[in-house]
Write a structure and sequence with these properties.
mainly alpha; two-stranded antiparallel sheet; two-stranded antiparallel ribbon; 3 helices; 11% strand
Length: 132
Amino acid sequence: MFDIGFWEIAVIAVVALLVVGPEEFPALVRTIGSWLGKIRGFMNDARTELEKEAGKAEELKRLIEQEARIAELHRIAEQANARIPIDGETRKKLNDIGAARPQEGQDGQLTPSTTSTADESSHGETKKEVSP
């Protein structure tokens, strides 16, 4: 951590023994050991919290990428659905079940209608009418 070897610690201990004296030296070593233990525990807790947060960030990044892929697939599916030609019989069935009537584009392809109105019936149900 601090790149202190055995001989550096031995020199520090001898100087501390000379400065503090033999009576107070054991209490000093205990106090320093206690402080070092608390510092080590704090560092371990901080590292654990940082690793947890980094894991959460990676998970969020993965979810965002997955959402982007899903959105792209939805866009492609909508484009594909907008270009699928519908024959007269299928159009009649769609109208019978109340599906929106797609509009024909300039090239004869069907495009989804974007205008719709909703009004409330007497039973509280919503009816959707889509203009062709």
